[in-house]
Design brief:
This protein is of the alpha/beta class. It contains 8 helices and 5 strands, in the order E-H-H-E-H-H-H-E-H-E-H-E-H.
Length: about 140
């Protein structure tokens, strides 16, 4: 399975090792699915995970966070944006997720914000899955 992960899913994985987001990240680490991202989307991951409110929860200092982000970058299949499909969604950050999925030929977008991506399922033949639903599909 080829999938693009919304930033909120990564934030949840960093904040708690007990949830489906963390399990999903472990499945990506074991190469059970291909995690895709564009450079712009990866920079958003980095920016959001570096915010003080998230660092206070995940407890990583800047050096540790950089090392984890390096490991994450090594997992991700890079996607080059050749076509932009804007505007399709209300949130510009969600547009980055959609563009990564379309340009990377992903089968799905993994997000907690399934309502925000509701129209893309039909328009772009993309499934929109929660982390728990994606885990079930990966483990099938």
């Amino acid at each position: 399975m080829r999938a693009v992960t919304d930033t909120a899913v990564l934030v949840a994985a960093f904040r708690s090792q007990g949830g489906s987001s963390y399990e999903l990240l472990q499945l990506a680490r074991s190469r059970q699915f291909a995690m895709l991202a564009t450079p712009a989307l990866f920079l958003e991951y980095e920016e959001v995970l570096s915010r003080p409110e998230h660092r206070a929860i995940h407890g990583l200092d800047r050096r540790e966070l950089d090392a984890v982000l390096d490991d994450l970058a090594a997992l991700i299949v890079p996607v080059e944006v050749r076509f932009q499909w804007r505007p399709q969604l209300a949130d510009a950050d969600d547009e980055m997720v959609l563009e990564a999925a379309i340009n990377g030929r992903a089968g799905c977008i993994i997000t907690y914000n399934t309502k925000d991506f509701a129209g893309v399922s039909k328009n772009f033949n993309l499934r929109v899955l929660t982390p728990a639903a994606a885990i079930k599909e990966i483990k099938r």
